[in-house]
Queue: 2 jobs
Job 1
Amino acid sequence: MANITRDQILGLVKSAVNDGLLSKEDVLEAIEFSGNTRDDLHMLQNEMVEASLKTYKVSIVELLQYIGGFVVLLGIGIFVAEFWEHIGVGTRVLIAVGAAMLSYILGTILLKTDRKTRSGIVFHLIAGVILPFSFYVVLQELFMINITNGVIATVSFFLLFIYAMSFIVFRHPIFTFFMLVNSILFLYGSIYALVPYVSTELISYTTLVIGAIGLLIGWMFKHTENEPLSGSMYFLGSVAVLISPSFLFGSTPVWELIYPFLLAGMFYLALLLRSKRILVISVLALMGYVVYLTFAYFSNVVGWPIALMFSGIALIAIGYIAIKFKNKI
């Protein structure tokens, strides 16, 4: 506890309140006020505001770093577009592989030496984009192998292995992030390679399963090194679970009947996991479902204007209920 500063403690309290882990009443009960309770409370509020401002400033710096990383990638892309055809095979391979390795090495060094900023993560994001490109350049330029779904699956598998080993060694969530990305690419690449004329239904069911697994992974990430990815997994998992069945409404109408139960399950999950991300996606999906049903089954009966008015009223009601429901999370 001696190494934890006052600002860090206040920042943690504010973060816990925002995430729903603590309520304001919990904070007040945990504080033993001295003589002047009102003055103590006022001082606590001011200090938490100051901690919030410091956190905001840090986020601006991090945003600038991410923008810088994007500019670097943009510069590499422009270079490739303008000069790629005018350089030799060896130079192409050297540039692609060298840029990927340099970004990876710099990112790894900065993760260890620079813990105050996100510069290490930025360089690993750059490396994560360039690494697949470098694999494809080597395969095309040195081995004359064209990019196919099987090649994408193979490259994704090797990158998955690389990032898995990196996580075992360095224990940082950025490596887990790229493990997840490449595992999804490997899965979809394998499906398209094994089933050349893959159906929309198969992709929809696959995406539904991946989304459910993503939600489970997000829950498993809690209280681990990968906890920063938990919220993102909830968001992406809920998007996959709730959007993929919509592509089955036409070919498998029974999903129109199943979908409300799926929505109810997602709302319950949002309350159980105290996740505003899942709640927001579920509300948007419910709104989309109501609009779909209105225009699919009622527009020809009551007419477009009445269907529009009904949809608008339903969306207002859903939004009102969602706000009430959000207060419980």
Note: DSSP finds twelve helices and no strands in the chain.
Job 2
Amino acid sequence: MRIPGRKRFGGIFSGDTAGFVFLFGFGFLFTAFFHVDAWRPAVYGSSRVDFPAVLGLLTLCCAVGWRGLLRRGFVWVEPAELTWLDFAPADRGRVVALRLLGAWTGVVAVTGYLASLLLAVGGAGLDQWRAAVAVVAATGVVAFATARRTSLRLDALGPLVLAVLGLAIAAFGLGPVTVQVVAAGVLVAALPMAFGGEPVARAGRAVLLAGWDGRVLRSVAVTFLDPMMLLPPSAPIGRLSLRRPTPLRLAWAGTLGRSRYAGAAVLVGFAVVVAHIAVPTVPGAVLIGIGAYVALTPFGGGLGELWRNPGRRRWLGSGNRELVLAHGLVLAGAGLLWAALLAVVTLAAGTSFAVTAWFAVPLSVLSILRTVTRGAIDYANPAFVDTPMGPMPANLVRQLFRGLDLLAFGLVLLSVIT
């Protein structure tokens, strides 16, 4: 039974703004396939396309998509809607199940598009296409099988194992037949991973309302152009101490409380190395810099929370410089660990980065510190300026890209030096 008041396909064909954005985006992405000859030297250069590395990169993309689906951001129901669903023919389980299907379809569509574009640009043969379809299909099945139930402790190991397989495909130059065998193994592994836990369609009110709170937070952050609201909160680390909180201890506890993002940071490290092999035209400094920024930003959330809350800083009794130095020291330690992981994976893959490219890691740490110490967004003076794309609020853009501006300037400089 169709839920009253719900538009089919999310209303994308209703003629409103969402439908226009969808059709425009679909057309823009589809036109890329008409210019594959122009894209080929820009993506792969003049050298021969390394299709095992491309398939390995595709496997890493599937692992990242699987990891994102395991966040289960689709498990939510609006409080008012949750109330009337108790008296409606449609149950809340069906609402969550449909939302799971939509999120899963989006992940498969994105990975499928990336696979099609990379193979089309590289001029892949039928064997490579079969291997890519097998990888996307197998990971899609295992992702759905794990995301449809509640979270288990070993969930994060699945994407990590898939990332290791992607690295092995790229490093050892495995052929399309071997890749299809690997995909078949992933498909077989989906059966035991589907068991355990409860279906998310049976989630209780507390879980659904917690998911709704997170969705509202994300919506407000996008509406008010304030991504700092999306910095992840710290989880309890299970220790009780009566000692006076110092900035260094607080920074260390905040990093440990966000250790759940360590698996995602490892995935990013694998992706950086495989992308360096598959797409040789992208400078290594750019890959390392962007990867470090994405992997380490969640661990800067502790300083971001303090910076946006003057009451907590007064309670702590420490100056701003002391807080930045303490959190910067801990974040630099996390960056050093990530760089060590990247070095090990690079050696295992039989590739290398230029010496100057490794300076992108401390550059990313400084950029993250600059990002999380951003003040509250000032909407009083947007300072519109005329651009070829129309009027643009320059002051809002300056505030929005604080931190990223330092990263972009540094990566351009490192790329030139390299």
Note: The longest strand covers residues 384-387.
